Amino acid sequence: MRKTIIIAAALIAICQYSGAKSKTLEAFIGKVSSSLVSFDYSFSARSVKSKAKMTGEGTVKVQDNAFVMDGNGLEVWCDGSIRWTVDRMAEEALVENVDDSAESYATNPALMITSVDSAFEEVSFGVTKFQDKAVDASVLSPLRKGKYSMDIAQLKLFFKSGTTDLVGAEVKLNDGSVSEFNIKNLSFSERLETKESFRFDEKTLDDSYVVTDLR
Fold it and tell me: How far is the C-alpha of 130 from the C-alpha of 10, rounded, in Å?
């Protein structure tokens, strides 16, 4: 479950940089910071140690430090204070408090929305290829490195050439593992007034579930 949560963290990080230097990234993050953001995704991830390949798809909804991700059999609900990770197939759930410490970035990536100025810097912007198509790419590096850093070593965002339309991302973790994401149906909606829709309703779990509560 830990590895999958890190993948979720990498995915949410796609919408979590605001210290923009390039005009493309700055315009994109302007939309993110003022909206409820939703998108569909598919990904492939390869582990350096085991050489195993993981693939999957799902949906994401994120606003400020709250998000909901549903994909690969896992639901991750976070209202910014409490995170529920629910595996419906295994009938297991994990409940955790979240905070703004550096080590929490990997498992509560939405924190990077509100603390982003101390999390990432854009190191380059230019033209490259993503899935055999010419795209504009923003390369981001975490400011914090070493023992108390996040698990993400590098983040690349790919935009349709000459636009602010995000089409994909590549995430490299500290262990060398690389995940590639395809982004579809990205939408920016009016912000929600409360975080109620990001809070998991534990009443949906019956007595058959094993709930590990770490709060």
Answer: 18
Q: Report the alpha-carbon distance of residue 179 to residue 45 in Å, rounded.
A: 4
Give the C-alpha distances (Å, rounded to integers) separating 113 from 17, 19, 59.
7, 10, 19
One-letter amino acid at 149 equals S
Confidence of residue 19 (pLDDT cuts 50, 70, 90): low
Instruction: For tokens 């500290």, name the residue.
Output: 174
**Residues whose CB is less than 8 angstroms from the CB of residue 26 and which lie 6 or more positions away in sequence, other chains included:** 20
Q: What is the pLDDT of residues 23-43, one digit of tens each?
A: 888 888 888 888 898 889 888
Exposure class string for 190-204: b at 16+ Cβ within 10 A, else e: eeeeeeeebbbeeee
Q: Is the pTM of this model over 0.85?
A: no
Question: Position of tokens 């295994």?
Answer: 90
